[in-house]
Design brief:
heterodimer; A: alpha+beta; OB fold (Dihydrolipoamide Acetyltransferase, E2P); five-stranded mixed barrel; 4 helices; 6 strands; 31% helix; extended; B: 247 residues; mainly alpha; 78% helix; globular
Chain lengths: 146, 247
């Protein structure tokens, strides 16, 4: 075996071991690397006594504001489980019913999630307003064609 | 030795590389300027505002190409480092080290523009989700690569250490790419490189691809200049060393 060949083999073996190690570590850390849980995951697990994030869609028709106060109530759904959320503060511009959202806070008494921070989650779709309008008209808007 | 290997060896000769770089540079620089002008016009003027994001979507035309290049440049560095470690081509080390500050620059642009987009859209400048965090680690890898290459009095040892760091750090590249698929993140998944059709309207896709090519042209052009400068400097060092020895 020439020296070049030996170095090539050493490099190949080294990188393979490194990739395997990284895969094992990432697999072991799977639960901590997620940015948020779905409402289903959170209700299935024992209620954690620490701040967590849940993500999903703001359920259509669930958004309600307390009169004269900055508190909003809505439900975050993963289309299986919907979790009621209560938040006092300023909502991001993209926040709307039917839109993706990530909410940080604590699961309080009575299953109401008390949020300290609400982030809008944008999906990977980019289109001009006219195209969105046309899709809505033809009934091929989101989910309806999936 | 195969034909491709001998072509590879010919290119590794600095004199031949310098001649090739001189021939290529006017073309790549001209193409970069033309594509950048066209891409900026298409992206900032001609492309329509997004149905949700409005004009904020235009940040994408800089953010996405910068992020693609951040990954591409690191992949280039890792490939050059492997060639340098196995075949001991001096030119490969020069390319890896010349590319590093460029990759770091692209990463900074991607992080900064992403932050500027995140504030109005997500409602936050920064979150520690898997995508954002792994890209920040990429920036640290670039900085570490640059620092390590210059941390030794012996240039060859510095190059070797930097090459090993580059290859170990390459593990981060697939993590960045697939972070949005493997874990739940705030960052959206890929819009362009998907198995089905891109989730981005053609009116917005073309400006994006045009900007991506412009960024690639910029990288190639500046890389050629930097490699050229380093090769000429190495030649100068040899001459000085020889003259000092003759005295």
């Amino acid at each position: 075996m020439t020296r070049k060949r030996r170095r090539l083999v050493a490099l190949g073996v080294g990188l393979t071991l490194l990739a395997a190690g990284a895969a094992l570590v990432l697999n072991a850390l799977r639960d901590t690397l997620v940015f948020f849980y779905s409402p289903t995951e959170l209700t299935a697990a024992a209620p954690p006594n620490r701040p967590v994030r849940i993500g999903g869609l703001v359920e259509e028709g669930s958004l309600a504001r307390d009169a004269g106060q900055a508190t909003v109530r809505f439900r975050v759904t993963d289309l299986t489980t919907a979790m009621p959320v209560e938040f006092t503060g300023v909502l991001p511009d993209l926040f709307a019913e039917g839109q993706g959202v990530v909410v940080q806070g604590m699961l309080g008494a009575g299953g109401v999630f008390v949020a300290s921070e609400v982030l809008a989650k944008h999906d990977e779709t980019y289109m001009p307003a006219e195209v969105a309008e046309a899709l809505k008209k033809s009934g091929r808007w989101r989910g309806t064609d999936e | 030795m195969s034909a491709s290997m001998s072509a590879f060896h010919r290119l590794a000769n600095p004199t031949r590389f310098l001649r090739l770089a001189d021939a290529l540079l006017p073309w790549s620089a001209g193409l970069t300027v033309a594509l950048l002008a066209l891409g900026l016009y298409l992206g900032l003027v001609a492309a329509p505002p997004d149905y949700l994001q409005g004009d904020t979507v235009r940040i994408m035309y800089v953010h996405v190409p910068a992020a693609w290049m951040a990954l591409f440049v690191y992949t280039t560095i890792a490939a050059a480092s492997a060639v340098a470690l196995v075949w001991r081509h001096a030119l490969a080390d020069v390319i890896a080290q010349a590319a590093s500050p460029l990759g770091a620059g692209f990463t900074v642009v991607a992080l900064a523009t992403g932050s500027l987009w995140g504030k109005p859209m997500w409602g936050t400048w920064w979150v520690w989700d898997a995508r954002l965090t792994s890209v920040l680690i990429l920036l640290f890898l670039y900085l570490g690569h640059m620092a390590l290459a210059h941390a030794f009095d012996d240039r060859a040892r510095g190059a070797r250490a930097a090459a090993i760091l580059a290859l170990v750090g390459f593990v981060n590249v697939p993590i960045i790419k697939f972070s949005v698929d493997w874990w739940s993140t705030l960052h959206q998944p890929a819009s362009v490189s998907r198995l089905d059709a891109p989730a981005i309207d053609p009116l917005m896709l073309w400006p994006l691809l045009c900007m991506a090519l412009a960024f690639m042209g910029y990288f190639v052009s500046v890389l050629l200049v930097r490699v050229k400068a380093e090769l000429l400097e190495a030649r100068l060092r040899t001459v000085r060393y020889r003259d000092a020895g003759a005295r």
